[in-house]
Each structure stands twice: as C-alpha cells, then as structure tokens.
Amino acid sequence: MSNRVIKDSIWHSEKLSFCSMKAQLHYPRLYLLIDDWGCFEIDIYRIKGVVYPKFKITINEIENILEEFKSNGLLFVWGKNNKIYGYFTGIEEGRLPALSRRHRRYTPEPSKKELQSYINKFNNLQGLTTKIYKKASKDYKDIQKGFPNTNTNLNTNTNLNPIIGQNKFDQLFKKFWTRYPRKEHKLKAKEKYLHLIKVKKVNPQKIEDALSGYINVEMSKGTERQYLMYAKTFLYAGKKGEKGTWEEYIPYADPKYKHKPEL
Fold it and tell me: What do you get for the CA distance between the two ends of the chain, in Å?
C-alpha cells in the first residue's frame, strides 16, 4: 500500500465529526489501508495484525469503528466472492497525494452506480440529519407498538435524537448477534438485519423466534458449529414473492428459547 498524507482539513470534516471521538482518532491509522484505488479488503483479523500489531484492541472494537465510518458516509462497503471490501470516500478528510494508479488493482472494482448512490446520500448532511431524525422517530414508534415498554426509565419522548434512534437498532442487533452461534461476517449480518427491520418492517421478535427455531432444529440434529449457516445467510430476505431463509424456522421456536428484545 502507498503512503498517504492527511491534510489539516480533517479537523473540519462534518462527516467525521458525526463519529465518536474514538473512531475519529483511529481514522488516520485505518486510512493507510487503502491502495492506489482507494480500496482495501475488510479482513478484520488481518487489519488487527497489520494496523494494530502492538495494541490491545479487540476484533469487535475494530468492526464497530468501521461500522461508524460506514454509517456516516466515510466508508463504502461492498461484497464479492464471499469477501468484503471497503472504499474510503472522503476527499475533504485528506486524500493527498492524489491516487496515482501506479499499481494494479488488488480488489474488485465497486459498482459505480451503488458507490455514487452512497456518496449522494451523504452529500447534504443537513438534509440527511433531518431525514434520519424523522425516520428514527417513526421507527421508534413502530417498535414501541410491537413491544410493550416494561422499562419505566425509558425516555419515550418522540422528539428522538437520530443517533439515539440508531442506537436502539444497534441494541436489537447486538442481542441477536449474542445469541447467534456463528460470529463471522458481522458487518454483513448487521446490514441484512437492519434491512429487515427498517426497510422490510419485520418485527424483531419474529427474527428472534426464527433464531430460536433454527437453534432447536440444529441442536436436535447435533449439527457442529462450523456447519451452521452464517448469520448473513440466515437473514436472507428472499426474493419478491418468496419467504426469507429465517422465516422457515419460526414454526420450530420453543417458548423456553425465546428472548424478547428489550428497548
């Protein structure tokens, strides 16, 4: 990978300012992963060994940092041939010197249409914040309808901060991920999970029931862990008119395995 110079304009990056302080401090270190084409393979274990050889940082922490970059318009992520790749989109965050293309490409080229769509989504941060604010409030109300509020300390103010709204979805996924028996491809699994509950409007409890059913079925067969589905496969939404992979296991859910996600 080539050397990179980070400009002082990084201090004024609006996109980066939406990230936590921890993610902001790690940005220059992770930015060095990119090749001449601005891309790199998201292999968390390799990243940990290359970028943090002498640091005490967990795989989960690195995944969370990259997820922040992705959620704030800094990192476009795509998959191909069972691998995940990333492209740092920031110009104002300091891409200097300009990409020289002196070396051949080592990663597949991202879809220009999808990349442009991702970049356009974050072009107007003020408009984006307003959009997320409204959507978060609506999604929060939808979830509250599906799950009675048993936490008397929960803030039910409908003027919901968009970041807090996203945190609620993160909590739901965290509960799902804690239960899921295989821990590979977390970023892709989270993407599919959020697609189900935010876009497809699936009640998170149905996913939990499906997971309980899947665990029951595989336990009864004595399936070893390495032969279980990846979470990203389990969460496949299905094509139009057909059921998702996860839905097939709902009938096998047993009450003693149910774990109701709490908000």
Answer: 43
pLDDT higher than 50, residue 141: no
| 94 conformational bin, left if phi > 0, alpha if psi -120 to 50, beta if neither | left
Residue position matching structure tokens 């965290």? 174
Domain housing 209? 125-257
Contact 185, 231 (CB under 8 A): yes
Residue type, 94: G
How many angstroms from the chain centroid is the CA of residue 44? 14
Tens digits of residue pLDDT in 180-224: 988 888 888 998 998 898 888 899 989 998 998 898 888 878 888
Which tokens belong to 220?
């009864």
The domain boundary residue, chosen from 68, 103, 121:
121
Please indicate, yes or no, whether residues 108 and 137 belong to a single structural domain of this protein. Answer: no
Does the model's pTM come out above 0.85? no
